[in-house]
Amino acid sequence: MNSPAWKWALISAPMVLSVSACMGWGGYPLAKNVHESQLIGTWRAGDCDTTLTLNRGGSASVTGMPTEMNLDGKVTQRVSGDGTWEIDKVGAEQELDVKIKDEWTPFDLYRDKGRLLVGLTVGDPDDMNWCALTKDA
């Protein structure tokens, strides 16, 4: 128990935990100060076969948004339709909330090398099923 590796593990564990608390899934840092104008447009997640369109004035449409996945990451349930969207502040963080068919779905906002990402956690977060949507150019 007096090995250098053990001491390094004890010293670095709190540091790793504090850094990971600032990161979202995939290690992406949370986006800050996101404005509605940055979200307007069409967002796609090829791995989840999902398209989300956010319009000025708060209207939205989604095609193929997964609502349930099995443990292998296979989509078992999807929703499509028209609805509304808004940016919500949750503590010090922002999230994108989309309402389709009277059901609100929260999306996390991340940055990847300066690019904005919209992240959807599908089902239980412990199952680690995510979709990362990027904006069409």
Walk me through what this model shows:
15% of the residues lie in helices and 50% in strands. With 137 residues, the protein is α+β, with helices and mostly antiparallel strands. The termini are far apart. It has an 8-stranded antiparallel barrel with strand order 1-2-3-4-5-6-7-8.
Q: What does the secondary structure layout of this molecule look like, with pairings?
A:
Layout lengths: L3 H17 L15 H4 L1 E5 L4 E5 L4 E11 L5 E16 L2 E8 L2 E10 L2 E7 L8 E6 L2
Antiparallel strand pairs: 1-2, 1-8, 2-3, 3-4, 4-5, 5-6, 6-7, 7-8
Q: Give the strand order, joined by hyphens, for the main sheet.
A: 1-2-3-4-5-6-7-8
Averaged pLDDT: 83
Terminal Cα span: 54 Å
Characterize the biggest β-sheet. 8 strands, antiparallel, barrel
Annotation field: number of helices: 2
- Find the structural class using helix and strand composition: alpha+beta
Q: Tell me the series of helices and strands, N- to C-terminal.
A: HHEEEEEEEE
Multimeric state: single chain
Please compute the radius of gyration using only Cα atoms: 17 Å
Note poorly predicted spans. Answer: 6-23
Number of strands: 8
Using the alpha-carbon principal axes, give the shape.
globular
Helix content: 10-25%
